[in-house]
Design goal:
With about 475 residues, the chain is an alpha/beta fold. The chain has 13 helices and 15 strands.
């Protein structure tokens, strides 16, 4: 029976031709290598071989690469902790190989801020694993938003180690970096919000510089310290880790400065809520989940936002507050024609289910007129501590004298102490008077004259 098997002669001929081809290729490669070594410097040869090796490695393992997409936000609402941590972590991995970087520096910042730009990548290694990070940014014009994300690429055989060890390592490293270099930031929250839109809080206010009654100041600091260290306690008793403070008192008594001092003391970011820009309950929820942990959420002049509570049964205020510019009605669901919200929306924002979307948060209301606020808004559990910022006391004056004049005593202090007991003057007015002269005697004399004029006016009006 005939077969189609090649003859021994044809096999030998094919093998001989193949061997000859191999020898030719080998000879050409050797000649190319010899010429290369003569022309190209050794360091460039090594870089060429390394790059070529990486190229072949990428081409041969492209199908084995796993890509993790890390968006800036989770479900378009809450901040993605992994994204924030990656930003901080990768800032320490920038090197000479990076070609596109973002450089920024605010006017009063001490140092530049450098981060990777759109399309830039950073190579990292962890326990023998090579990982590639890529920054992606795209604009969504239809929603007036900027979408930011990162991609993390690695060989899929390392998936368990990356998720189980590398990502936790990035989170831990980022936490340490944030704690060491945390800069308090100020965010404005209203109808539109971009979590990247913030400025560094440059307010110099501290508890040492506040002209507060010493006992009130000590009580507040003790309360803040107790709150900051009680994470396990809040979890054990089943309460959300948050605290509410109502700052009330006449205009010019330092409510905004106290908020800044609290932020500087705790190293918490400040989110300033503009209620006049919000129309529906959904706005509260969207803005609440956009805030970070370890933050202070501030609604200033809350009385200005509740000046239409005429329909409330108890303690409703029906007058007109000339200091208020916001005009928010909490009695109905709102419409396109006005800025109206139900009171329930604000109450749920403070202590409803959505308030549990975050840890270590402080909520602060400030008001000039505590009596105008609905009792439901400031009850314990919502506003846990009420702090009255009064007119200037002698203790507060000594703080101002130390800050502005660098003195702790003076012959005029006795007269000033007696006058402060008789008249009402705000810390802001006192500070303004002490700033008028660099001469200590002249500045104090001017302040005494201010107090005497105030006393005379009060007597004329029958207030004394």
């Amino acid at each position: 029976m005939a077969t189609n098997l090649p003859s021994a002669t044809s096999v030998v001929s094919a093998y001989t031709a193949f061997a000859a081809s191999v020898m030719v290729v080998k000879t050409v490669l050797n000649e190319f290598q010899s010429i290369t070594y003569q022309i190209i410097p050794q360091n460039l040869q090594e870089k060429f071989v390394t790059k070529l090796g990486k190229l072949f490695q990428v081409l041969s393992t492209e199908k084995e690469i796993l890509t993790l997409s890390i968006d800036e936000q989770c479900d378009g609402l809450t901040q993605n902790q992994v994204y924030e941590a990656a930003q901080a972590y990768l800032s320490t991995k920038i090197n000479h190989s990076n070609k596109r970087l973002k450089l920024s520096k605010a006017v009063r910042d001490k140092d530049f801020s450098v981060s990777i730009d759109k399309g830039e990548e950073i190579l990292d290694s962890f326990e023998g694993i090579t990982l590639r990070w890529v920054m992606l940014i795209r604009s969504e014009e239809s929603q007036m938003k900027v979408h930011r994300s990162m991609e993390l690429n690695f060989h899929k055989q390392h998936k368990e180690k990356v998720l189980g060890r590398y990502i936790p390592f990035v989170l831990k490293t980022a936490k340490r970096i944030h704690e060491e270099n945390r800069v308090v930031k100020l965010y404005q929250l209203g109808e539109f919000h971009d979590s990247e839109s913030s400025i560094n809080l440059q307010h110099p206010s501290t508890f040492d510089t506040l002209a507060m009654e010493p006992e009130v100041k000590r009580a507040l600091i003790a309360d803040l310290d107790r709150f900051a260290r009680r994470r396990d306690f809040y979890r054990r008793v089943g309460k959300v880790w948050k605290r509410g403070y109502l700052l009330h008192g006449p205009p010019g008594t330092g409510k905004s400065s106290l908020v800044a001092a609290m932020a500087n003391y705790l190293k918490f970011h400040i989110y300033d809520f503009d209620l006049s820009k919000m129309r529906y309950n959904l706005d509260f929820r969207q803005l609440l989940v956009s805030t970070s942990n370890r933050s202070i959420i501030v609604i200033e002049d809350i009385d200005c936002s509740t000046n239409k509570l005429q329909n409330r049964q108890h303690q409703a205020y029906s007058g007109i507050n000339e200091d208020c510019t916001a005009d928010i009605n909490y009695n109905n669901e709102g419409s396109e024609d006005d800025h109206s919200l139900p009171l329930a929306g604000l109450l749920n924002f403070i202590d409803g289910l959505w308030s549990s979307c975050g840890d270590e948060r402080i909520i602060v209301f400030t008001t000039n007129y505590k009596e105008r606020l609905d009792p439901a808004l400031i009850r314990p559990g919502r506003m846990d501590m009420h702090i009255h910022l009064s007119y200037l006391t002698f203790g507060g004056f000594t703080v101002l004298a130390s800050n502005y004049l660098n003195i702790s005593s003076h012959p005029l202090f006795t007269q000033i102490e007696e006058l402060i007991k008789e008249v009402q003057v705000t810390p802001a007015a006192a500070a303004e008077e002490l700033m008028k002269s660099d001469d200590i005697d002249e500045a104090l004399e001017g302040f005494v004259q201010l107090l005497l004029k105030k006393k005379e006016d009060d007597q004329a009006q029958g207030n004394l």
